[in-house]
Write a structure and sequence with these properties.
Oligomer: heterodimer
Number of strands of chain A: 12
Number of domains of chain B: 2
Largest interface: A-B, 59 and 57 residues
Helix content of chain B: 55-70%
Number of helices of chain A: 13
Strand content of chain A: 15-25%
Number of strands of chain B: 12
Order of helices and strands of chain B: HHHEEHEEHEHEHEEEHEEHEHHHHHH
Order of helices and strands of chain A: HHEHEEHEEHEEEHEHEHHHHEEHH
Distance between the termini of chain A: 27 Å
Number of helices of chain B: 15
Chain lengths: 392, 385
């Protein structure tokens, strides 16, 4: 045991402060990497949250076998009625089964402020559709009356598309539709849709068939039973899946794209930042050879020197991580809207910072600091005392 | 000449530090080049489009179709040279992971309209003869190892059922920007099967590709076609092929913007690393610069020394970065061929690489130069590393 086991922490802080410019540049580079790292994770989390929240596990979506989404699907009226008679379906407060037969089409609407159009999902709904989606909250106006040209718009549509606001009108399907309500469905995909009576929308778009049938299960564990029955019925050629699973599948391609992009970007960026930290730490060692010799002469062990330099590098990573996270937390104020290629429609989602992402980002920053500081610290600890003292 | 020698000697005085910095810049330039290539891959469809082609589709949105009867009415429009209908088929080969674009087309007119798709004439004849035949791009055929005469089955998503096809031809692109991963089959095959299974969905065309006689009348012809069908059940939206392709990109604008931003972030990160190297270098040599000043060399000479060193390091990194960009782009393009069928490094990307390296080298030199020029000779001589 040596008399002075550890080099005081203030030594590290003072060293970093002496080289303010270098420290600042290194920390800045790391902060940017952490920023990008957490931004990508936050984006993926936001997307996941949006899509998982869109579905609920006790709801079942029935679409035509082989079709990937409601838009491609078609469910004939007769087939829809057969689904309605399944006895696993929950009964609502009014004594009616909780089944909704829906139409989903995509139309192009102009965005506010530009003449450029973007794809919007129009959903034709039955009376039960709203009961099946407890996330739907009316924030302005009222629900559209069945049998009329009334529609309600999701909050993202009302804000971003011309004619989507309360009291405004939209023209499609050779008819004019009055927006009588604005609804908020939280961070779900429904917030980017327009809803109206399915029996009005089907003739407007010249459609003979529904797109999907949605129902709530009486008991969520009966899913397999009802799925097997529907899929084996030769009259139907339909496919049933849990709503959560359905929406997860909708974004598979986008999620994969974000993941590949995120992983490749952060790994390249972090290499850059590690090199930055390495240059800084090598310089720190080189310019302090005399000091290191003195410390060794005073009785500090090789291990203490190694620890001191590693600690200094970890501090660089720590500050970089804190600053990067600080700035990335502001990203939560932004909403990204992009096209989901699987559904040809707009999907809006936001950055979402969770504790897990914060831990991961900090861990990542510390790893960068460690990786950058290891080799220089080893070199510092291996310096022979006499040579080091002579260099001073 | 002496200056150049001094710069080179200086640049490699701290070998480890210099090579680490060069490595950093190489990585940054590589990342920057790849990201730029991703963006140009995004726009590949726009680049490949011709000014003398129009696309007419249902005005409501792309998922709505147009009646087949429109084909003749469009053909009669003034200025229209040729019309060819097509449908996005959206079929899946074995598994969702094996994504490639597949279209039902009218082969007799399609190949006239797209001279950049090169198909040997005997294969073309074989394709037209076989109602179940299909042609596919060279890259797609190589990826799945298909041979002429092989049977391929796609699972329909929009058009239900299992669809059997026979490979009758392999096409090549005339230019580098032609997508060689597309699958084309006969529209008649699609239509005949639909007539049997879903008669109300038969005789429907997803989009008409229209060749106009002269590119300069394209917009007039588009307006004429849209006028023809105004107030009908299926109104048309006719635009140039370029505008049609752009409308797809506009919808994913957010992603393109994000990639663009990120490509600049990587440059800023490496700028911090490079500036750090130069700051350390200049601090160590402050005494030498003071000696230069004492000997009568001016501020310009010292500035040239520091900027020269900074630019030397950044340009070496840039050269390595560009050299690695090509094999990396090839590997990246192969891995992501599902998302980006065309993934070529453009000359523009290389120029941008060089510009980025110049900016990195210059910015990194500013602060150390300013400090070294300002310092008084006596202070400089007194200061030790």
């Amino acid at each position: 045991m040596s008399l002075l086991p550890n080099i005081p922490f203030s030594y590290n802080i003072k060293n970093l402060w002496t080289r303010r410019l270098t420290t600042g540049l290194t920390v800045g580079g790391m902060a940017l990497v952490v920023f990008v790292f957490s931004a990508v994770l936050m984006l993926a989390e936001g997307l996941k949250k949006t899509l998982v929240a869109t579905g609920s596990p006790e709801n079942v979506v029935v679409i035509r076998k082989g079709s990937d989404s409601e838009i491609q699907s078609g469910v004939e009226r007769l087939q829809a009625s057969t689904i309605e008679t399944q006895h696993e379906i929950a009964i609502g407060a009014n004594g009616m089964p909780l089944v909704a037969k829906e139409l989903v089409v995509v139309i192009v609407l102009p965005k506010r402020g530009t003449d450029k159009g973007s794809n919007v999902v129009i959903r034709g709904i039955s009376a039960e559709s709203i009961l099946l989606r407890p996330q739907i909250r009316l924030i302005e106006g009222r629900f559209p009356r069945p049998g009329s040209s009334e529609i309600m718009a999701g909050i993202n549509i009302a804000k971003r598309f011309t004619g989507g606001g309360l009291g405004e009108t939209l023209r499609f399907g050779m008819r004019t539709w009055n927006v009588v309500g604005i609804f908020d469905a939280g961070s779900t995909g429904f917030s980017s849709e327009i809803w109206g009576d399915v029996d009005q929308l089907m003739p407007a778009f010249r459609r003979q068939a529904y797109c999907s049938v949605i129902f709530r299960l009486r008991n969520p564990s009966e899913f397999e039973v009802v799925k097997t029955r529907i899929e084996n019925d030769p009259r139907l050629s339909l496919e049933a899946m849990r709503e959560t699973h359905y929406y997860e599948k909708q974004s598979e391609m986008m999620a994969k794209f974000l993941r590949i992009l995120g992983i490749s970007l952060t790994s390249i960026f972090s290499l850059g930042a590690i090199i930055g930290a390495m240059i800084t730490m090598y310089a720190a060692v080189a310019s302090r050879v005399g000091e290191i010799g003195t410390l060794r002469a005073l009785g500090f062990r090789r291990r203490s020197i190694l620890c001191a330099f590693l600690l200094e590098s970890l501090l660089l990573g720590f500050f970089g991580g804190i600053i990067g996270l600080f700035f990335s937390s502001f990203l939560q104020l932004f909403t990204i809207s992009t096209m989901n290629f699987q559904t040809f429609s707009e999907l809006a989602f936001s950055f979402d910072l969770t504790f897990q992402i914060a831990y991961q980002a900090m861990g990542f920053a510390l790893i960068m600091g460690f990786a950058g500081g290891l080799l220089p610290a080893v070199r510092a600890s291996r310096l022979p005392i006499v040579d080091a003292l002579r260099a001073a | 000449m002496f200056l150049l020698k001094l710069i080179l000697k200086n640049a490699f005085r701290h070998k480890l530090r210099t090579w680490l910095t060069v490595l950093g810049i190489t990585i940054a330039i590589l990342a920057f080049g790849l990201l730029r290539t991703v963006i140009s891959a995004w726009y590949a469809g726009v680049e490949a489009s011709s000014a003398s082609r129009l696309v007419a589709r249902n005005a409501i949105s792309i998922i709505f179709t147009l009646p087949l009867s429109y084909e003749e009415r469009i053909r009669q429009t003034d200025g229209v040279r040729i019309v060819s209908g097509g449908n996005w088929f959206g079929g899946i080969y074995i598994d969702e992971k094996n994504f490639f674009a597949n279209f039902a087309i009218e082969p007799k007119t399609f190949f006239d309209l797209y001279p950049e798709i090169i198909l040997p004439s005997e294969q073309k004849a074989a394709f037209i003869r076989d109602r179940k035949g299909f042609v596919a791009g060279r890259k797609l055929v190589e990826k799945y190892g298909w041979k002429l005469g092989d049977a391929v089955t796609l699972r329909g998503t929009i058009f239900p059922g299992q669809w059997d096809f026979v490979l009758r031809g392999v096409y090549r692109g005339r230019d580098k920007n032609v997508d060689e991963t597309t699958f084309y089959f006969q529209w008649d095959y699609l239509n005949e099967k639909m007539k049997k299974t879903y008669p109300q969905r038969a005789d429907q065309i997803g989009f008409f590709m229209i060749g106009v006689s002269r590119p300069d009348i394209a917009s007039d012809v588009a307006a004429r076609i849209d006028n023809e069908f105004r107030n009908s059940i299926a109104e048309t939206l006719t635009e140039t092929e370029k505008a049609f392709q752009m409308s797809w990109i506009a919808m994913s604008q957010a992603i393109v913007t994000a990639i663009q931003l990120v490509s600049f972030v990587v440059i800023i990160i490496i700028m911090a690393v490079m500036a750090n190297t130069m700051a350390m270098t200049a601090r160590e040599r402050i005494g030498e610069y003071a000696i230069f000043k004492t000997l009568g060399f001016g501020a310009a000479y010292i500035a040239a020394l520091i900027f020269g060193e900074s630019l030397t390091i950044s340009m070496i990194g840039c050269a390595f970065g560009i050299a690695f960009t090509f094999p990396a782009a090839k590997a990246f393009g192969d891995a992501l061929s599902t998302f980006f069928p065309i993934f070529n490094v453009e000359p523009k990307t290389i120029y941008l690489d060089i510009a980025a390296a110049l900016v990195i080298g210059t910015v990194a030199g500013i602060f150390p130069t300013w400090r070294s020029i300002r310092i008084k000779i006596a202070d400089g001589l007194r200061r030790i590393g």
